Amino acid sequence: MTGNKVIVTAALSGSAHYPSMSPYLPITPRQIIEDGIRSAEAGAAILHIHVRNPENGMPTPDIDVFREVLQGIKARTNAAICVSTGGGMGMSTEQRAAPIINFKPEMASLNFGSMNFSVFYMAERIKEWKYPWEKLSMLASEDYIFPNTFKTLREFLSIFRANDTKPEIEIYDLGMVNNLAFMVQRGHIKPPIHLQFVTGTLGGVPSTVDSLVTLYHAARDALGEGNFTWSAIGAGRFQMPICSVALAMGGHVRVGLEDSLYISKGVLAKSSAEQVGKIIRIMRELSLEPAAPDEARQILGLKGLDKVNY
After folding, report:
1. Residues 90, 93, 95, 100: what is their CA dihedral angle, to the nearest 10 degrees?
2. Do residues 278 and 256 touch, judged by C-beta distance below 8 A?
3. How would DSSP label each residue in 205-256?
4. With contact defined as beta carbons under 8 Å apart, do 28 and 60 qualify?
5. Burial call 38-47: b when 16+ CB within 10 Å, e when fewer
6. What is the CATH number of domain 5-307?
7. Of 55, 86, 220, 267, whose CB is crowded by the most CB atoms within 10 A?
8. Which residues of 57-93 are buried (b: 16+ CB within 10 A; e: fewer)?
9. How does pLDDT run across 133-165, given as a tens digit for each residue?
10. Span 181-215, pLDDT tens digits
11. DSSP assignments along 56-101, one per residue
């Protein structure tokens, strides 16, 4: 953080949660836009965007859907937008990179290593499915490797540079810190770098204090003090505990329905904005304040909303 200002990111929809899991998960462009606006009004400086097929909620790389969401958000808030390049299961590298090339956003995510990204175990909790694709997709993740090779990372970083888009480096385990250090040594990415430590995803590190501290120390040792900013995610029920630890450690935070469908034990969140409000209440108990969008741009060195292509 800078002074007492903390950047709150709201991740609105994602691809790991399924429509049958919550009636509040935003699916259509209008629903995603509205959740984004409410989250910005609640205090989120950055909105992290995936999009879905409005007919069935399946994650989609459709550029027209991205355009509708990005333009709809920009028309009503100056929050910074971080576009996902994680996409959804089975999307090609070209599909994942297309939003950067087409829209030149201020930020975009970049998962920094291949991993067994799995949600198959959640299928047993769902009694009724809204759409046929959901159960098939969820179970298929047991045999899915999310590919992010050194070649594709190099290609992605080249695309980021060409479009003046700042990468948000997603770190799911210790090996990804090592991957990043290697790419820095090769000159493919230069400090200051923004990291997102992701805890609690099956295939990555668990949501524990030890995991978060270990990732932070590894990044500090590999990149050097002052050469990076960082934020943290706690998946599922660990959303608020991990974000609270990150606040105590001097980091920024991410909440939203992409990461957790709940606002408290057994209570579904009706919007990402609810979770933004909760983490800001916790933040203020620690004498911290949410950064405004332009303050977040200054902290992260973003190019500004006037330089995007949407």
Report:
1. 140
2. no
3. --S-HHHHHHHHHHHHHHH-TTSEEEEEEE-GGGHHHHHHHHHHHT-EEEES
4. no
5. bbbebbbbbb
6. 3.20.20.70
7. 86
8. bbbbbbeebbbbbbebbeeebebbbbbbbbbbbebeb
9. 999 999 999 999 999 999 999 999 999 999 999
10. 999 999 999 999 999 999 999 999 999 999 999 99
11. T--B---HHHHHHHHHHHHTT---EEEE-S--STT--HHHHHHHHH
Secondary structure (H, E, C), 99-149: HHHHHCCCEEEEECCCECCCCHHHHHHCCCCCCHHHHHHHHHHHHCCECCC
Placement of tokens 């057994």 in the chain: 266
Q: pTM value?
A: 0.96
| 110: nearest Cα among 211, 174, 193, 16 | 193
Residue 238 and residue 25: Cα distance in Å, rounded? 19
Q: pLDDT tens, 54-112?
A: 999 999 999 999 999 999 999 999 999 999 998 777 788 889 999 999 999 999 999 99
Answer yes or no: are the C-beta atoms of 263 and 13 closer than 8 Å.
no
Residue type, 208: T
> Could you give the CA distance from residue 306 to residue 310 in angstroms, rounded to a whole number?
9
Distance of CA 220 to the CA centre of its chain: 21
Distance CA 46, CA 293 (A): 7
HSE-CB for 88 with a 13 A CA cutoff? 22
Torsional sign, CA 4, 197, 295, 153: positive
Q: For the CA atoms of the chain, what is the radius of gyration?
A: 18
296: left (phi over 0), alpha (psi -120 to 50) or beta: alpha
